[in-house]
Every structure is written in structure tokens, then in C-alpha cells.
Amino acid sequence: LRKDGVAIMFVTHRLEEASAICDRMTVLRDGRLAGHLDRDGGPIKLPKIIEKMVGRAASELYARPTLRDVAGDVRLSVRGLRTVRDPQAPHAIVLEGIDLDLKAGEILGVAGLVGSGRT
Whole-model pTM above 0.70? Predict the structure, then answer.
């Protein structure tokens, strides 16, 4: 379509798709124009899109605290949490030998690949 001179307006929230196919991008923040971005020889970079959308660099969005910054008392302490077999997938190990301390104010996330027995 580009070769035929056809212009397309693509409206989406899917940033990866927009980055891959758009030559130019207009970014809105709170319903107002936040800026324009151009392809410049390659896909429009996601951090640049996010920066326009939120008004600051993506690296500033989520500051990673160091362990010293988490000052709360230990609220949950687990030692030696062992395995449990999933009856629907007897070969799957759900947990094995887990030790952890969770302090006040911390958020613990547990993640795994699809099919790894997370559910």
C-alpha cells in the first residue's frame, strides 16, 4: 500500500504493533498532544513512546529499591517449604525447598513459564 501512495491512520494501544508498522506516530497524554515520533530508519523505540505517554523516561517509572530501602519488619518467614505434586500432572513439581523472608511493604511475585505448574 505504501508503494501505491495509500495513507493509513492506525489507532491502537498496542505499542509493539504501532512501533513496527508506523512511519510517524502522534502520541496523546490525558487527551492532549504529547508529541510526534518518526521512524528514522528503524522502528520507533518503545521507551520513546512511553516517555511521550507518561511525561518522563521509562527508566524513571519504577525505581528499584535496594534491600536496605525496604525497612519494614519481617512479616512472613518461610523455611524449607517442600514440594507438592499436582494430581493432574504427576510429573510436575509445584514447590521445592523454598526459604524466604517477606518484609512489611514488600511485594512478592512468583512467576513461571506457561505449563510450569503455576496454577
Answer: no
